[in-house]
Amino acid sequence: MTISDQQLRAFFNRIDVDNSGTLTPTELQRVLLNGDWSPFNLNTIELLFSLFDHDRNDTINFNEFMGLWRYIEDWKRIFSTFDKDNNGTIEIPELVTAMKSFGFNISEQMLKKFVRKYKIFYNVEGRKSMLNDFDYAVSFDNFVQLCVTIKTSADNFRAFDQAGTGWVKINYEQFMEVILKNE
């Protein structure tokens, strides 16, 4: 379902509880929900702010919100494409397929490390849990965060791997610059 700019404006105004004309991370987190009605985690909210708070004032105005909303809607379509069993999470095999379709050849073992970084896992029944084994999947917000993180990391790597060999040699200062870019 496509939402009109007028409907989006009305929605924005309802979210903007302090009537400031902008949204704070807290206001945005109240309305961004996963398929299980859990709110987006704060790390994903901060990531979205870093992408859409163009004037860097730690708030999102309506124009920035329009871009953010469309971005999330695009990610929802992508997520549903790879959530083959429609359980609201993407399991590791589905995640491997998604990454390959995005052009990222990442091993299952490395994806498990990335998923583990987000600390909240979903077991195959979709219940939140802290699992010690590798029988877990990611929710929608963690999927977005994971994909953006992998893309950003890959872009940083490719900036150094201009020959496309899959190998880079960087010094300590260059490495630290990459870390600072990703924070």
Automatic annotation (TrEMBL):
It comes from the Eukaryota. Keywords: Calcium, Cytoplasm, Metal-binding, Repeat. This is EF-hand domain-containing protein. Residues 3-38, 70-105 form the EF-hand domain. InterPro entries: EF-hand-dom_pair, EF_Hand_1_Ca_BS, EF_hand_dom, Peflin/Sorcin_CaBP. Its main location: cytoplasm. It comes from Glomus cerebriforme. It is found in: Cytoplasm. GO terms for cellular component: cytoplasm. PROSITE patterns: EF_HAND_1, EF_HAND_2. GO terms for molecular function: calcium ion binding; calcium-dependent protein binding.
